[in-house]
Request: fold
Amino acid sequence: MTTTLLIQDETATGAVLHRLALELSQETITARELIEQRVRQEVAAYNQRNDDVFAGLVQPTDSERVLNGYRLKKHHRIDAEKQLYRALEAFQQNGYFILVNDRQVESLDEQIWLGPGATASFVKLTPLVGG
Reply:
C-alpha cells in the first residue's frame, strides 16, 4: 500500500515556505527514515532539472539562501549522502523540528504513523544572533 504524505516547510511564525508530496510504501516510519526519504527525493528532483535553485530541507554547500530555497553559486549535482547527514545533524541540533498530525516528533528513532490524510510540518528555526 502506498501512502502520500503532504509535507510543508514553515517558519516558527507559521509562514509556509515550501510544500511537497512524498510517496511512502509503509504507514509506519521512523523520523530518520522520513527525513532520509524526503532528502533523497528532493536531491533526485534537483539533479534531474537544469535549475540553479534547490528547494530543500537544508542548505547545500556552496550556495546562498534566496526567497524560495538555495541558489547554488555554480550548478552541480548535489550529493544526497551529504545532504542527508546535514539534515539529520540539523534535526539533532534543533535547526528544525517536525510536527506530524500536529504532534511534535521527539527523536530520530521515534515511530510515526502515516495513515490516510497525514500531514507533516518541518518547522525551521532561525538562530538568534547576539551582539
Summary: The first strand starts at residue 3 and ends at 11. Residues 3-115 form one domain. DSSP finds two helices and ten strands in the chain.
